Amino acid sequence: MKDLQRKSFQTRAVHAGERAPAADYTPVATPIWPTVGYIYESMDDLDAVFAKTKPGQIYLRYTSPTAMAFEEAVASLEGAEAAQAYASGMAAIHAALLAAGAKAGKSVVAALDVYGATFTLLSNLFTTLGVNTRLVDATNLAEVETALKETQAVILLVETISNPLLKVADIPALAKLAHENGASLLVDNTFASPYLFRPLEHGADYVIHSATKYLSGHGDVLAGIVATSKANKDRLFELNKLTGGTLAPFEAWLALRGLKTLPLRMRQQCQNAQRVAEWLKTHPKIANVIYPGLPEHPQHTLAKGLFSGKGYGGVLSFEIAGADRVRAFRFMEALQLCLPATSLGDIYSLIVHPASSSHRTLSAEERARVGIPEGLLRLSTGIEDSDDILADLEQALAKTG
Questions:
Q1: Cα angle vertex 204, ends 201, 210, to 5°?
Q2: Distance CA 375, CA 379 (A)
C-alpha cells in the first residue's frame, strides 16, 4: 500500500508487512501460502485468470501455490501429466469416481476387497444416488470381464495392493479389459506408492492416493491426490471448485516435505515387512501370514514382475491361531513398539484390527464375504530396526498365550 506510514496506527496494524514487492530471489524450499485471496494491479489480469487465458491464483478453494507444488511433485513421480490434491484420500476417491462418470444410471465394477470406506462409499452413498456397483474378485480376470460386459460399466476400480488382504492386481491386464469394454480404470495406488509401481504407465486412467499414508509418511497430515491426464485434471479441478475438498496450504507443505524421503522410507519399510512376514510364518502361534513377498502368496510372481524387484510393500496381514476379537485386542494391547493406531505408511510401525477399524462399517456377513475374520491383524512396518519389531511381536505373542 502506498504511503502506508501516513495511515493511522490501526490501519498500519492491519496492512504493514503485507504484499511485499517482487524479489529477485527464489526460496530453496516451497513456502506456505495461507492466504485465501489474491489481488492484481489490473482487473483485466484477474479476469484473464478467471477465464484461464492467463495463469494465476484466485481463491484458496480453487488451489494454492503450495498445493500446486505438491501436485507437480506427485505428477512427476507417477509419470502423470497433472494431479489434483484433496483434503483426504476419501475425497480423492469420491472425486475421481465422479470425474470418471459415476452418476445415476451408470455402473461401477470394483474389487470386492477394497478399503472399507471405499466399499461403503460405493455400496451405500453411490447406491442412493442411483449408481449400480458390481463387486468382483479383481484377481479373476474372467469374472472382471463378465461384470464389465453385463453391467456396461463406465468405471473399473481396483487397488494395486488391496487393503487388508494384500491381493495384487494385474493392472496391465485390467486396463486392457476396461478399455475394451468402454470403462476407465481407476487405481488406488496407496499401498504400492509410485516407488514400487506407476499404474499410468500400464494403462490406468486415474491413480488415487491417500497421501496421508506413504506419500507424506509421518502420520501428521491428512491428504489425498489423484494423478491423471491434463484433460481429467481439468474435470477434477472444476468439480473441486464446487465440492470444496481442497488441500489446505499447511497440509500441502507437510505432504510435500514428507514426499521427499519416500524412496528412503519405502525401501526400509519393504525390507522390514519382508523380514517380519518370513519370521511370522514360522511362528507356532501364527495361523496365516499374507504378504506378496512370500513365495506362497497367490500373486507373488505377478508382484515380482510389476514391482521390478524393489520390494513388495510395507504392509502385511496375519492371523493368530484360534484368535477371536478379544484375543486380538489383548495382543495389540501387549505391544510396546508397534502402535495400535488407525493408519499405515508411517515411519512408525502401526497395527490395526480391520474388522473393528478399517472395515467396521461392513456387516459381519459382508466381512465374511470379503474374507476378513475376527482374528486378522494388519501390520504396517515402519522404519525402525527390524530386530526391535520382531522382539515386540514376540513378547506380545508370549503374553497373549
A1: 100
A2: 13
Residue of 86, 113, 115, 392 marked catalytic: 115
Choose, from 113, 170, 188, 392, the residue flagged as catalytic.
188
For the domain with range 44-259, which CATH number is right: 3.90.190.20, 3.30.450.20, 3.40.640.10, 3.30.2000.10? 3.40.640.10
Question: Nearest to residue 197, comparing CAs of 109, 63, 123, 302?
Answer: 302
Which position has the grid cell 465422479?
Answer: 98
In the residue annotation, 115 being an active-site residue is answered as yes
Identify whether 213 is a catalytic site residue. yes
Beta strand ranges found along 229-293 (DSSP E): 286-290
Which residue stretches of 85-229 are H helix? Answer: 89-99, 116-120, 127-128, 141-151, 171-180, 193-196
Q: Name the residue ranges covered by the structural domains of the chain.
A: 44-259, 262-399
pTM exceeds cut of 0.90: yes
Give every CB contact of residue 53 below 8 A, 6+ residues apart in sequence.
Answer: none
The CA angle 347-120-333, to the nearest 5 degrees, is 40
Catalytic residue among 167, 213, 367, 378: 213
- Residue of 7, 61, 257, 275 with catalytic role: 61
CATH class of 262-399: alpha beta
- CA distance readout (Å), 97 to 104, 141, 154, 317, 357: 12, 22, 10, 28, 24
pLDDT digit string (tens) for 248-296? 999 999 999 999 999 999 999 999 999 999 999 999 999 999 999 999 9
